[in-house]
């Protein structure tokens, strides 16, 4: 395979990973607005943070939406991809007790391929060039 073909396929693959990860993280962010009770229950049950108010859930949702948009745009990749990886990693690892009863918690296992996608995207972030930043970088000097 020619180098140009590899770069093109890698670029499209990383964009697909970013779009897929965005779709999950963005829905989770919207959930904080539309169902703050669910957010409070998740924070209590998985992170040990009780009495999360609807207002704080909305603030967290707003911050997560901002991060998701930055992530989708491919901006500040080390920061945005890294924070997405950390957030999803915390969610994945905080669910550890559910993995011990797999057949009653099958949906929790979907977190692992998503975690792998977040990790792969973070590790390959320098090759993820189908971003808004690409519009502003002179290809002759990059």
Extract low-pLDDT stretches: none
- Please give the number of β-strands: 0
> Helicity range of the residues?
55-70%
Q: Taking all residues together, what is the mean pLDDT?
A: 91
List the total number of helices.
6
Please tag this protein with its features.
6 helices, transmembrane, membrane
List the helices and strands and how they pair.
Elements: H1 3-34, H2 36-47, H3 54-73, H4 77-94, H5 96-99, H6 111-123
Describe the overall structure:
The chain has helices at about 5-35, 35-45, 55-75, 75-95, 95-100, 110-125. It is an all-alpha fold and about 140 residues long. The chain has one domain (about 5-135). The protein is globular and about 55 Å long.
Summarize the structure.
Keywords: Membrane, Transmembrane, Transmembrane helix. By secondary structure, this protein is mainly alpha-helical. 70% of the residues lie in helices and 0% in strands.
């Amino acid at each position: 395979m020619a180098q140009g073909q590899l770069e093109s396929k890698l670029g499209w693959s990383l964009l697909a990973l970013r779009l897929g990860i965005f779709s999950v993280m963005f829905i989770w962010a919207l959930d904080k607005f539309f169902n703050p009770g669910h957010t409070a229950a998740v924070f209590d049950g998985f992170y040990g943070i009780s009495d999360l108010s609807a207002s704080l859930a909305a603030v967290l949702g707003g911050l997560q939406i901002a991060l998701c948009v930055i992530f989708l745009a491919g901006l500040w990749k080390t920061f945005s991809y890294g924070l997405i990886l950390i957030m999803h990693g915390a969610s994945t690892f905080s669910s550890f007790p559910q993995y011990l009863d797999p057949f009653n918690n099958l949906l929790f296992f979907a977190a692992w391929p998503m975690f792998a996608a977040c990790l792969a995207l973070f590790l390959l972030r320098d090759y993820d060039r189908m971003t808004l930043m690409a519009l502003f970088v002179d290809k002759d000097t990059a």
